[in-house]
Amino acid sequence: MTASTASTAPRTGHIGLNVTDLERSLAFYRDVIGYGVLAEGKEEGRRHAFLGEGGRPVLTLWEQADAAYAAGRAGLHHLALEVDTVEQVREYETALRAYGVEFAYDGVVPHGEGAASGGIFFHDPDGTRLEIFAASGAEGAPAPVESAPTCGFF
């Protein structure tokens, strides 16, 4: 089916990330982000984990990388994870700070000057850029990047 004949565009099924250390990344996404482990493969050379909620895969981790994420290469820019409220974003911020994660900006910031949506911007253990955001609740906070989308510049 081509885009011109489809009634809707395809939805994202799940995101796959190459990681350098499956155990470290699994602990981060399971224990801090909160995804459940749906399946794991521990065979040497084929280590992976499927993570999700309600039995539905959201994220797969593949121990296939030999170096950290490189922002200057083509491919994933960042992974944005949505929650229902800005209070949930702040709860994640607290948990991530306790885990020792460094943030690109201080606190919850809007997606752009005057935007209601916003979130927190940080990196996973391999340096992959992540965002946790809510559709509203960031009103009135100053945008860290004027006249441009915040998520594009971290």
Can you count the beta strands? 8
The low-confidence parts are none
**How would you sum up the global shape?**
globular
Percent range for helical residues? 10-25%
Order of strands, main sheet, comes to: 1-4-3-2
Largest sheet, strands/sense/barrel? 4 strands, mixed
Order of helices and strands: EHEEEEHEEE
**What would the average pLDDT be, to the nearest integer?**
92
Given helix and strand content, the structural type is alpha/beta
Beta-strand proportion: 25-35%
What is the CA-atom radius of gyration, in angstroms? 17 Å
Terminal Cα span: 36 Å
Oligomer designation: single chain
DSSP helical segment count = 2
Structure in words:
This protein has 154 residues and is an alpha/beta fold. It is 17% helix and 28% strand. It contains 2 helices and 8 strands, in the order βαββββαβββ. It has helices spanning 22-33, 86-99; strands spanning 15-19, 36-41, 48-53, 56-63, 79-82, 109-110, 118-123, 129-134. It has a 4-stranded mixed β-sheet, with helices on one face. The longest helix is centred in the middle third of the chain and has 14 residues, at 86-99. It is globular. The N and C termini lie far apart (36 Å). The relative contact order is 0.17.
Summarize the structure.
This protein is α/β, with parallel strands linked by helices.
Could you list some keywords that capture this structure?
154 residues, 4-stranded mixed β-sheet, 2 helices, globular
